[in-house]
Design brief:
alpha+beta
């Protein structure tokens, strides 16, 4: 395998090829060798081999720059295995084999660094624990969230008040192109109707710092956004008692179905046209509230846009390996969280 890392000329070039700058690349690299050792030892135990890696083998398992460059380049550019093999001077079958070997190591390293989002939340306490690392949002009195419970703090020297609000999360769905299945039933499930595309999608929950807190399982397009959300967040749990949440119009009915409706912000829907109301429109106040919610909710759009800098999420997904379509977005979400950590 060719070592292209030493040939990189600048920070900008490294970002364009791997999606990470040099500082984040060097931060991720030391976590990969221990992850490789852990996975190898687990394979021994799974195969009932009573041994672990010796010191000499641990040293050989040292994860080098060019291997990390290889797997990040695959996620960032998403070439075919033929192109990937040609680029790194490998047989296409070896290129495919290396991808399958390195992805689990990258996932374990990200898990050890705590950059991966949650996949399952069963209680509101788990959601609160996920938000513990997020600092409380402080806004000036002139820009509070609508209907948000606030607590006024002591005045500072310049007589301006600092208003503390509850942590806020943003919920949305991201959609990705997927290959067309040969099976008719699978085709119908994935058909989106948008330019004859076949797609999959995931629920995304982010915070005000654009970090991905929760990533739902990959589902076919035909499942409605709100239906996916109800399966992932039980209506029996009071999720939003201690947090504010912003959603879009795809989540109609969320205030009726979930507790703490006062903490749920959803835009006003334009009324239907009828004989009594031939020219339906929103009031100025409703339009202003919609604009304010949209200005806050754009954070989750930025998070999704940042994830899609990795082209494996934007190009049509071609791989047919089981669960790989879900695995790649999970790992890219972890890379995005690592990228924006201060």
């Amino acid at each position: 395998m060719k070592n292209f890392y030493d040939s990189v000329r600048s920070e900008r070039q490294l970002k364009s090829l791997t999606g990470l700058g040099k500082s984040k690349f060097e931060e991720l690299l030391p976590a990969l060798s221990p992850a490789l050792v852990e996975i190898t030892n687990e394979k021994y135990r799974r195969n009932r081999t009573i041994r672990s890696l010796k010191q000499e083998e641990v040293e050989k398992a040292n994860f080098q720059h060019h291997k990390l460059f290889f797997i990040l380049f695959y996620l960032k550019e998403y070439p075919t295995y033929e192109v990937l093999g040609f680029t790194f001077d490998l047989n296409p079958s070896f290129a495919s084999e290396n991808v399958k070997k390195l992805l689990p190591v990258l996932r374990r390293a990200q898990s050890n660094l705590n950059t991966l989002p949650k996949r399952i939340l069963q209680t509101s306490l788990e959601l609160e624990e996920t938000l513990e690392a997020v600092e409380a949002i402080t806004l000036t009195p002139h820009s509070p969230l609508p209907d948000t419970t606030t607590e006024t703090c002591q005045k500072s020297k310049n007589s301006s008040k600092v208003v503390k609000t509850k942590p806020i999360v943003f919920i949305d769905v991201t959609e990705r192109d997927h290959f067309r299945h040969q099976d008719n039933s699978k085709q119908r499930k994935h058909y989106s109707g948008k330019r004859k595309r076949h797609t999959v999608k995931n629920t995304i929950v982010s915070d005000s710092k654009r970090r991905i807190l929760f990533l739902g399982r990959t589902k076919p397009y035909r499942q409605h956004d709100y239906k996916m959300f109800k399966k992932e967040f039980s209506k029996k749990v009071d999720w939003f008692s201690k947090v504010n949440v912003c959603v879009d119009l795809g989540y109609q009915g969320i205030k009726k179905d979930y507790s703490s409706a006062q903490n749920i912000k959803i835009p006003h829907k334009k009324p239907r046209k009828s004989k009594k109301n031939p020219k339906p429109s929103l009031t100025r106040k409703q339009k202003a509230e919609n604009q304010q919610i949209a200005s806050k909710r754009v954070v989750v759009e930025h998070a999704i846009f940042g994830m899609k800098a990795f082209h494996i999420l934007t190009n049509k997904f071609r791989n047919r390996s089981k669960n790989l379509v879900d695995e790649v977005i999970f790992q890219v979400a972890g890379l995005w969280n690592l990228k924006i950590l201060s």
